[in-house]
Design brief:
Layout lengths: L6 H27 L4 H24 L6 H30 L5 H28 L6
Helix pairs in contact: 1-2, 1-4, 2-3, 3-4
Length: 136
């Protein structure tokens, strides 16, 4: 079995920093600046971040030369599943743990927790499903 922490993992995390910065700015600006709501703000985070993520991970992290259409569709399915699971778990858990706080605080904490869950789920999905045929 391959080492779980290797150069591919480090490159994935570097790409993740870029995605997280870009996506977080979008998400928190939409939620706090434009008052779009939890689901719209967090979804826009992953739409923008996922576009950047796909190209950087395909070429830089996993150096994949696989069938692009299959990879794109699998990537989209992976992102959607990870998003729904991560944010679907984060919101009720944070609301339960931080029930005495205001809705805005709870939503911001839930979005942060959702981001953290998403990263872990997404890494395994991309490495072992989406780009499994890459050179890594």
């Amino acid at each position: 079995m391959k080492k779980m922490i290797d150069w591919v993992t480090i490159k994935f995390l570097l790409v993740g920093v870029v995605n997280t910065l870009v996506g977080s700015v979008v998400m928190f600006l939409l939620y706090n600046g434009f008052h779009t709501g939890y689901w719209i703000a967090s979804a826009c985070n992953y739409i923008v971040g996922s576009i950047v993520s796909y190209f950087l991970n395909k070429h830089f992290t996993f150096q994949s030369h696989g069938n692009s259409m299959r990879e794109v569709m699998t990537f989209i399915i992976n992102i959607v599943i990870c998003y729904v699971v991560a944010y679907g778990i984060a919101k009720p858990c944070v609301y339960q743990l931080f029930g005495g706080y205001g809705k805005k605080v709870q939503d911001n904490l839930a979005m942060f927790a959702g981001m953290c869950l998403f990263v872990g789920l997404n890494y395994f999905g991309q490495r072992f499903i989406v780009f499994k045929d890459g050179k890594h």
